[in-house]
């Protein structure tokens, strides 16, 4: 059974002087992800990150596939320093790397054995090992064909001080940067399809997120809040835990409903959300806001509207979905596991108060005029006072 995993990481290998810091972060994140399923040791050995664990390999891989920063994982067999064991192990690794391997001379698969020997007391040199293991594999699968320049499969054999390691396959990871290596941001998390994906995409770039949700109880019920918690939980799977700030938004919405022109309601509501988010972000030392907005999807998502809304904050607003079509966003939501929850039918505070004809090109002066009828500062203070912070942890 596989008990050692060689971790391949892409970009963080390029970070020069920062590399140790990035590696440390990645190691911590891996340890945390694996601690949910059992015991695992994460270390840096011979310039590589290695996980050692006796946990069921499928579980280990499932966990590691949710750690940002990992490009690929090679499950390896740790074996005694014994030639037969190395041959048998290589065969096993090869079979696992090519599921359903049925090699016939008619349809050859090319391969290459890459042996390395740092333990010079081992009786065979690296070229001898290549020959021995390659010969053994060819004996078992005559359809294999050696190709030293461009093989389809590389079977690696490493002879170390105490053990031999054998591996062949690479299981793809999700890439990106380790969460926590790019600072913190506040995600505006609705119960929809888009914002969880936006959160995931910012996490992918190493951003640690906290989430804020604007809740309009009793217009939106406990179920809709539970759905947002579930979405947070699903995102937390990629980072362990996420703080969720639940803002009581009902009073603000009622005031907007009563005092502002109908077509500007969405604009004003968003401006209030951005103001509140900015305050929370500042308190939490977050450096940016993240939203699930996308250009052209709905009325509030024109460039004019975005400008009028964004003017109320001095924070950078990240909109990771800006280049994506709805279909692509849905696919990503399915891939990361949030889609099924997002489409549950509970009301969202925005849909409830939606005007029939929202302004598609609200200008800042209009919005400011409309807000003169609101006690903006008091409303903000009241909502912040009633904000509840929840600590949402991953399921696993
Ligand atoms: P989503 O699918 O994320 O709900 P959407 O396409 O429905 O997005 P809008 O309703 O215009 O778009 O909302 C735009 C963005 O504003 C959302 O992606 C989210 O970041 C934020 N947002 C909207 N409603 C809320 C809410 N109740 N709480 C927190 N953030 C919200
Ligand atoms: Mg929505």
Residue share in helix? 25-40%
Return Rg in Å. 27 Å
Shape: elongated
Strand content: 15-25%
Low-confidence stretches: none
Largest sheet: 9 strands, mixed
List the helices and strands in order.
Answer: EHEEHEHEHEEEEEHEHEHHEHEHHHHHE
Q: Report mean pLDDT, rounded to a whole number.
A: 92
CATH fold label of the largest domain: Rossmann fold
Distance between the termini: 23 Å
The helix-and-strand class reads alpha/beta
Number of alpha- plus pi-helical segments: 14
Assigned CATH class of the largest domain: Alpha Beta
Name of the CATH architecture of the largest domain:
3-Layer(aba) Sandwich
Small ligands present: adenosine-5'-triphosphate, magnesium ion
Account of the protein in words:
The protein is of the alpha/beta class and 396 residues long. The chain has two domains: 4-172, 2-Layer Sandwich (VC0802-like), CATH 3.30.2130.30; 184-393, Rossmann fold (3-Layer(aba) Sandwich), CATH 3.40.50.620. 39% of the residues lie in helices and 20% in strands. It contains 14 helices and 15 strands. It has helices at residues 19-35, 57-64, 83-97, 126-140, 194-204, 222-236, 250-259, 265-283, 303-310, 326-336, 339-342, 349-352, 364-371, 376-385, and strands at residues 4-8, 41-45, 48-52, 72-79, 109-117, 144-146, 153-159, 164-167, 171-172, 184-188, 208-215, 241-248, 289-290, 317-318, 388-393. Strands 1, 2, 3, 4, 5, 6, 7, 8 and 9 form a nine-stranded mixed beta sheet that branches. A six-stranded mixed beta sheet has the order 14-13-10-11-12-15. Strand 2 and strand 3 (48-52) form a beta hairpin.
